């Protein structure tokens, strides 16, 4: 049961991922959660670091699509300046949104990775969709009220995962 929540990799932040690392693992596109993964949930404008990361991905020909449980209005408002494609109301931890994301890209499951800050939604959804996953640390320590419930359960699951999988460690990138 707990294996369904085990990420393929654990990286400190999405901005630590480089095109070279992704390509080394056969990854040609990134599906990413929005809140506390790509942008802080309470700062929809993003950061210069985010914009530079997106430029690097674009130059390398690696598309980035946001897969979020938020409404289309919320996602569109947050991404307006970033000009990213998205899947809203993704229904994570179900596979629906992640499947829609990789199908839009016309890529196989092996060519995409799902990046997110929550085991209960992002990583579980990636397992159900059959794609690899990267767990990142949340950008900010606060959460919206609905996410706090998931974090409570997530701490218990993570404790068990770490006990059963001593190889699970936070890394600075995919090559460590």
Task: Write the SSE topology.
Blueprint (H helix, E strand, L loop, with lengths): L8 E3 L7 H6 L4 E4 L15 H12 L4 E4 L4 H8 L5 E3 L8 H9 L7 E5 L2 H11 L2 E5 L8 H20 L12
Parallel strand pairs: 1-6, 2-3, 2-5, 3-4, 5-6
Output the keywords.
Rossmann fold, single chain, globular, 6 helices
Strand content: 5-15%
Say how many strands there are.
6
Task: Please state how the strands of the largest beta sheet are arranged side by side.
Answer: 1-6-5-2-3-4
Largest sheet: 6 strands, parallel
> What low-confidence regions span 5 or more consecutive residues with pLDDT below 50?
none
Name the CATH superfamily classification.
Answer: HAD superfamily/HAD-like
Number of domains: 1
């Amino acid at each position: 049961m707990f294996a369904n929540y085990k990420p393929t990799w654990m990286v400190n932040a999405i901005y630590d991922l480089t095109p070279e690392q992704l390509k080394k693992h056969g990854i040609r596109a990134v599906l990413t959660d929005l809140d506390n993964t790509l942008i802080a949930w309470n700062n929809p404008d993003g950061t210069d670091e985010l914009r530079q990361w997106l430029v690097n991905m674009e130059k390398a020909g690696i598309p980035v699509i946001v897969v979020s449980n938020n409404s289309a209005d919320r996602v569109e408002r947050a991404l307006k300046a970033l000009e990213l494609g998205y899947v809203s109301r993704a229904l994570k931890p179900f596979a629906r949104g992640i499947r829609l994301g990789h199908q839009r890209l016309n890529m196989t499951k092996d060519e995409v990775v799902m990046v997110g800050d929550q085991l209960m939604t992002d990583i579980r959804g990636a397992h159900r969709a059959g794609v690899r996953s990267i767990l990142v640390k949340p950008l900010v320590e606060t959460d919206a009220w609905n996410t706090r419930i998931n974090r409570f359960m997530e701490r218990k699951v993570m404790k068990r995962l770490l006990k059963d999988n001593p190889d699970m460690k936070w890394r600075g990138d995919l090559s460590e």
